[in-house]
Amino acid sequence: MMLSRRQRHRSVTKLQNKYLLIGLTVVLMSMAVISTALSEKAAVPALAGQVRLSGQELSMVLPTWQELLFSGVPGLQTVAEKRPLPRFDMEQFGINLFQVFTSIDLGDMRSLITSEIPVLASVKNGNLPVSSKPVAILPNLKTAGIADTGKPLIGIYHTHTAESYIPTSGVAHKPGGQIGDIVGVGQALVQQMAKYQITAIQSNTIHDYPSFMKAYGPSEITAKKMLEENPSIQMIFDIHRDAQKRENTTVVINGKEAAKIMIIVATGQPDLVQPHWQENHAFAKLIDSKLNQHYPGLSRGIQLVEWRYNQHLHPRALLLEVGCQENSLEEATRSMEMLGDVLAEIIAENKLQQGNTQ
User: Fold this and answer.
1) CA atoms within a 13 Å half-sphere pointing along the CA-CB vector of 112
2) CB 153 within 8 A of CB 200
3) 305 and 125 in contact (C-beta within 8 Å)?
4) Phi, psi of 109 (to 5 degrees)
5) Contact call for residues 65 and 32 (beta carbons, < 8 A)
6) How many CB atoms lie within 10 A of CB 13?
7) In whole angstroms, how far apart are CA 239 and each of 150, 178, 234, 304, 341?
8) Angle CA 24–60–179, to nearest 5
9) What sections of the chain are H helices per DSSP?
10) Which of 18, 62, 63, 333 suits a disulfide with 67, CB 3.0-4.6 Å?
11) In angstroms, rounded to a whole number, what is the distance separating the alpha carbons of residues 204 and 28?
């Protein structure tokens, strides 16, 4: 079908606008990179007498990215004086820009895999014998006597410690090895369990800096240490947030918005043996069933993944995805309060069952 001249013109105009936007973005990024790289040099030789300037002195002499931008767009200075420009975060700017054009979160490589093979995002592993029937009681969950001693029953850590919620902190990942909002999510679960006189301990150890991709190596060391030093632990959670869209990870419960919880069960690979995956899966199904019973819609279900995610270390080890980068810490905290209610019920039921069989 032939396009009219107006349609062709509109298509060309849209294409031109798109390339103009990309070009402007590249220019701004280039200016920012140059300004940042120069200002962070520890010392550089100056032309006059080879005087060496410190990084702080250099940053006072060289133009900032805002000054470069103002020189190119004169009228912007007046606007900026009325409304100051935000602090420029080069790392986060690059991550956000890439996610806009590709829908891939550089902070979460799983989004790269699912973007290239979209069906993986919704398909669960069908090659393993999986029972859909949730168990009522976990036979090896030893809670009788432990809870009364004050020893920890629950362990919490975060492989990707920098993960954050944009509405709360303005970034999806805290830069430079800083602790992100996700640690606050773990703290909320610790506090909720304390309301039931159940002790939960949390590690704030940073694992994803300097290497995000190698974070599971350091986090495995943390999980092992936590379990060795606290043999009373009966369940251990690696808490993350997902890379998704808000509409997929938000639910309204009792009139308030909360971040949905996805439960990840690792089934292992031939070279990454996971002997506990069926026990972990049974535990996941029990949590999922309780969440659906008490808080319909809070659970996003269970996803089986052919990996390990440190779940080979314990028969009740799970990875939890609490909301996405577009949720808020408040919404994620609200979810942890409800998850805490469910975990307390599971522990109480198992304690009662063990008491009846003794």
Assistant:
1) 7
2) yes
3) yes
4) -70, -15
5) yes
6) 10
7) 23, 17, 16, 16, 17
8) 70
9) 5-39, 55-61, 65-72, 76-82, 90-102, 110-116, 166-169, 182-194, 216-229, 277-294, 329-357
10) 63
11) 36
Q: SS3 of 250, please?
A: strand
Residues contacting 182, CB < 8 A, separation 6+: 158, 160, 161, 162, 163, 164, 239, 240, 241, 322
R_g (Cα) of the chain, nearest Å: 25
Tokens in use for 68? 């470069």
| Residue that is written with structure tokens 């996941």 in the block | 284
Residue type, 66: Q
Written as tens digits, the pLDDT of the chain (358 aa) is: 444 434 444 444 445 555 555 666 555 655 554 444 444 333 333 333 333 334 443 444 344 444 444 444 444 444 444 444 444 455 556 655 665 555 555 555 555 544 444 334 444 444 444 445 555 556 567 655 555 678 999 999 999 999 999 999 999 999 999 999 999 999 999 999 999 999 999 999 999 999 999 999 999 999 999 999 999 999 999 999 999 999 999 999 999 999 999 999 999 999 999 999 999 999 999 999 999 999 999 999 999 999 999 999 999 999 999 999 999 999 999 999 999 999 999 999 988 876 655 5
3-class secondary structure per residue, 290-347: HHHHHCCCCEEEEEEECCCCCHHHCCCEEEEEEEECCCCHHHHHHHHHHHHHHHHHHH
pTM of the model as a whole = 0.66
